[in-house]
Amino acid sequence: MEMRDLVALGDKLLDIDEAKFRQVVELLEQMNEHPDIQRTIAVIRPRLVELRLHRRPTLKRLFCDPFEDLFEALGKADPVPLSVIERSLMNSLWPLVEAEIGKDRLRSFRPALQDGPQRKALTEAFWAECGSAVARIAEGATAGHYSDALELRMNPARMRALTDIATILSIAPEVAEMKAALSPKPVPKLHADHVEAIQAVGRRVTRARPEALKIFVLIATSRLSDPTVLLSGLWDMDLGQKPADRAALFMALSGTVVAQMEDRSRAFRSAPGTDRMAVADLALDLVASLDATRAAMEHSRNKDFDQRLKEVRNSVHAMVKTQVLQDADAGIVAAIGALDGGSEGRAQLAQAENQARALRKCATIADTLGLRGELREMTQKTTASLTEKAQQALGGPAGNARTGYTAIRMIELIAGPAEANKIMDGIMNGGRR
Question: What would you report as the CA-atom Rg of the chain, rounded to the nearest whole angstrom?
Fold first, then answer.
């Protein structure tokens, strides 16, 4: 199979059977450095992660190993790193690192890709040289300007990411040790041995590169299913710092946590027409993060953070109110009447089911957001309208069974199976009298 044939497959590779998919991945790996192949791998990366395919070791992959936990999350279940590095930045950066180090010198590091007595020493030397190369590249980049070398506009996030990559590579051996202790990723709960490992390695980072401790802790958080969990225990950790430095680190990390929540809430608030279940999932995630962050910040008593957290809560409140609750009854009931509308009707029904699930999911955070009354009122109003539709459709010979059962199904999604069964029993019993 030629390269153009592989590239032409594109997202079709996500649907082929697993055996063929593995064969195609092997072919792609052999031509990995070609830009078109990299784009194709980017398309199929979610499936690569899902199948946990063992991929051919390369120097590029070894380069990424210390900071790969900070790449953008690929799936809905993946933790969102508190400090994100774009894959596109890494793909643009690696050729520049190769050029900085030189082909002959890079060739001498290839034994690091194989098991052997020299592997550890070569790997650490490779990371050190890559870190120096990235630092030089970062010095040549200008914030707010387009980088011809990287073929990217250097916004503040990318400038920060370049500096972070250089810093992480300078402490890569310590990062590797910490990652081994917090495995497999994602770690659902911090146990005593996890905390001990973070503290022991963190103290070494503090002694050698104190300015690198923040990004070290951020990588540790990215290995947890809930990154905010580490923040709550950070105040009591012994990372070898003076009290003032510990307080400064805690405040800096707290600021990063709050800033991420602000960014995520803004992104959905300003995106009308967003998938309503995605809104509900984000709302639950943000409320959990708010609770964990408030608990962690009991030590800081910082009024600025209190205000910012309040604004995040208000943003989530508005997001749920306008994108999940607003006009839910009209949209859901209208979809029942559009069942015979062909593909458009099916699409409308799918959207209505999505909103019904979102309503039920948001019930778990309604109290926290101050939306309990509004959500209960919308749920009751929608359920009453659907019950009327079901009664009309199932209560007489002229009814439409499909419409009736669809209405009952929608009630189940909104109010649960017990309520749906109760309403269904009432309609059936009423029809027999």
Answer: 27
User: Dihedrals φ, ψ of 26, to 5°?
Assistant: -60, -40
Q: Where are the alpha helices (DSSP H) in 31-118?
A: 35-51, 59-64, 87-101, 103-108
Higher pLDDT, 301 or 165: 165
Q: Which residue has the tokens 């602000």?
A: 262
Identify which of 22-36, 266-280, 335-349 has the greatest average pLDDT: 335-349
What 3-state DSSP class applies to 109?
coil
Whole-angstrom distance, CA of residue 94 vs CA of residue 71? 15
Preceding omega of 57 cis (within 30 degrees of 0):
no
Q: Which residue's entry shows tokens 């911090």?
A: 190
Q: How confident is the model at residue 299 (pLDDT cuts 50, 70, 90)?
A: low
**Dihedrals phi, psi of 151, to nearest 5 degrees:** 55, 40
> Tell me: the pLDDT tens digits for 255-290?
888 888 888 887 766 555 568 888 898 899 888 888
Q: Quote the crossing angle between the two packed helices 87-101 and 119-140, to the nearest 10°.
A: 100
Which tokens in the block code for residue 433?
A: 């009298």
Residue 95 neighbours by CB distance under 10 Å = 13
